[in-house]
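User: As part of a screening pipeline, I want to sanity-check one entry by hand. Below is the sequence and the SMILES for adenosine-5'-triphosphate. Please return the complex as structure tokens so I can compare it with the automated output.
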Amino acid sequence: MIIRDLSCGYPRARVIEGLSLPPLPPGSITTILGPNAAGKTSLLKAIAGQIETEGRIMLGDEDLTRLTAAARSGRVGYMPQTAIGRIGLTVLDCVMTALARTGDAPLDQRAMQVLDRFGVADLANRPMRVLSGGQRQAVSLAVAVARNPVILLLDEPTSALDLARRHLILGHIRALADEGHIVLLVLHDLAFAAQWSDRIAVLGRGRLEAFGTPEDVLTPEILRRVWRIDARVERCSRGSLQIITDGAML
Ligand SMILES: Nc1ncnc2c1ncn2[C@@H]1O[C@H](COP(=O)(O)OP(=O)(O)OP(=O)(O)O)[C@@H](O)[C@H]1O
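Assistant: Here is the complex for your manual check:
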């Protein structure tokens, strides 16, 4: 996927102006980092076709911005920051609704396979409204992935999960990338981003502040400039980056 000169926003607020990114290849995880209100969610919504957008979003020869909503939703799976809304439905209904547009049959078997993949098959017949925040987040991920879209946009997919489940779900997300999906994540946890991302795009006030590997991007200079925090960055013995601020490990 190639994003060129993308501008987007809301009726009274332009959020991103003329953003271009290096190509995001199949098989990769790119994480968007940045302070609150930098425009991370807006960028995902623009790619998903949910807000007013100018510029080009190329997938091969296709410009996503020129596709119909139905064609675009076959190529892009979007997991929103707040868990999916269809709160009156059961978990299984939610996934089947997402699958219904594909015409794949039998839907219930496919839906159960997807739920099983993310470890929530036992929740299939429970109403969404009774789920815990973490359970709802795992189901939201299953819904985004259900139709097997090539692009996966996942907005803070682990924010409600305990530490073990965070690693579990990020492992699933890595497996999805290994299967050839183009994964775009929004995370706030810099250490998780360092551990799980191939590339990181840093946004600040709707502009690209940095793009590169975790080592390129998570530097004291960029942390100071974009997040306004003083930090040291160290590589621990097992290779992962540690970001140390005020003596606290992030
Ligand atoms: N529906 C909306 N209408 C008008 N302005 C909006 C709307 N949604 C978001 N914004 C504004 O767009 C800007 C970017 O918001 P966005 O949600 O993209 O930021 P973010 O980087 O994802 O933030 P956070 O880390 O806090 O989730 C903010 O100033 C926000 O107030």
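Points to compare against the pipeline: Residues 10, 13, 15, 34, 36-42 surround adenosine-5'-triphosphate (CB under 6 Å). The chain has nine helices and 13 strands.
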